[in-house]
Task: structure prediction
Amino acid sequence: MNSENIIDLLNRLLEAELMAVEYYTIHADAIAEPEIAEGVKAIIPAEVSHAVNLAERIKQLGGAPVGSDGEASRKGREMGERSKLDGALAMLRLELTQEQLAIKAYAEPVADILHDMVTLEMLEEQLFDEMRHAKWLKQRILELEAKAP
Ligand SMILES: [Fe+2]
Ligand SMILES: [Fe+2]
Result:
């Protein structure tokens, strides 16, 4: 993978992180169950720092990170607003789907990158965060499904 490919890849990951910040923020305010809302709220700083780390690394590699108030943020807000009308379970399912996509999107470069240990280590750490987020969401979804009539 050359550095131009890595910059493109980091920008795609950055777009997903910018989206995540928006729908998690909207969901944290919209979820009625206080414990679930708190847990969702606790994920937001991790996604913000993922976005910051990716943007920093893109700049270090000589690239231009996508803006934090562009198309990705708009799309994330739209996802959040649309899904918040359907209740906590629907919101958590959307979040889980996105975390699952993020895990897969991080895992491929983690497997492939050979010549850039700095980027590799950042992506590894962020992959672990997404795995933890996905697991937490799965646990909450199972609980809500068990309670549903
Ligand atoms: Fe993230
Ligand atoms: Fe996440």
Residues 3-147 form a domain with the Ferritin fold (CATH 1.20.1260.10). Helices lie at 3-30, 34-60, 71-84, 88-112, 117-147. Residues 5 and 11 are 10 Å apart (CA to CA). The first helix runs from residue 3 to 30.
